């Protein structure tokens, strides 16, 4: 159905009000502002006016997956298995990944069909801490702590990384908390010291912790409380 017709079905809006609301950017479909009156909406669409929910759409899904190594953080890949291949849930192709991980990175991955919610997890302005357990080839020296806290210059993007917190847990083991999600960020930060990352595991995204009872490849729905933490 056309978005303007959908909105006109609500008794409180006449056609003029619908037109003005659309022009003013007050209407969101699946988390994005839509001004086009012809935009198609279905029973799967989440429709909001001024953030107020007009239609919840298809049941929202929020999954926590323990990503195994050797699997692509994408919904489709011609060569490798993807995280979606691990899921046995209806309509899994409506899900998207909130914060990708590299092919061999393991740990916490969130999949959802709620774009507005996942944006809060991933948009840079949120500065959500992402916590990784990192194993490296060379010894992690104490001076890394200060360098990571000051930020590291990434020439390709011409930017300096935001302050990151490093806890050294062993000669080649550390826990790193970063508030951005730059391309290969953790590997490049250790790469600054020519120290290769051997294994990388995401333990936490903000208040969402990987459930210890999930084995690699396993997943579960988030609880209402966990959804509310974001
Ligand atoms: N940083 C990386 O280098 N790789 C990841 O998968 C996540 C963060």
UniProtKB/TrEMBL annotation:
Residue span, Pseudouridine synthase RsuA/RluA-like domain: 62-190
Transmembrane regions listed in the UniProt entry: none
Keyword field contains Cell membrane: no
Any Pfam family hit: PseudoU_synth_2
Keyword Phosphoprotein tagged: no
PANTHER family: PSEUDOURIDINE SYNTHASE, PSEUDOURIDINE SYNTHASE FAMILY PROTEIN-RELATED
Homology family: Belongs to the pseudouridine synthase RsuA family.
Function: Responsible for synthesis of pseudouridine from uracil-516 in 16S ribosomal RNA.
Protein name (database record): Pseudouridine synthase
Organism: Pseudomonas baltica
